[in-house]
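Suppose a colleague, Dr. K., hands you the sequence of a protein chain of 156 amino acids and asks what its three-dimensional shape might be. Before reaching for any lab equipment, you can write down a predicted structure in token form. Begin with the sequence itself:
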Amino acid sequence: MKLVNHERNAMDLRTTPVHLGLGSRAKPVEGFAWDPEVLRAYSAAVAADGAEGRMVMIFDGDGRGDHWERHPAGDEMVVCLSGSVTVTRDTDGVSDHVRLGPGEATINPAGVWHVVDMEGPTSILAITAGLGTEHRPRTEARPTERVGAPGPEEAP
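The predicted structure, expressed as tokens, is then:
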């Protein structure tokens, strides 16, 4: 994984996210993968951007999301590019559902647990404040019930 300073060619945001950082810089993230080592390397490479850093990426899918997540460092914007998606937020035990069609967006406030369900083949664009992001497996329990393994900040 490496950040590229001046990419001049077209890139696929499905495989190469872009990091938006301090100084209004945009850097493609080559070799990105949802792998713990790659995620640690990415976090280390962008640590100086702190809470102001954002990852921009497109996700394709079809079906129910398998995990809840929250981003304590900042808001996340989710844009539906095609298909239909429902974003469910859990704020202090109260569920909020937002259905999006193509061209529609919603903002997940900082620190609020949320899950994304794609209804049929769907593409979304996410602009995420990734610093400190937490995940919980999706079960019938609410994310605030702390189901699953502790996050890194809670490990002994």
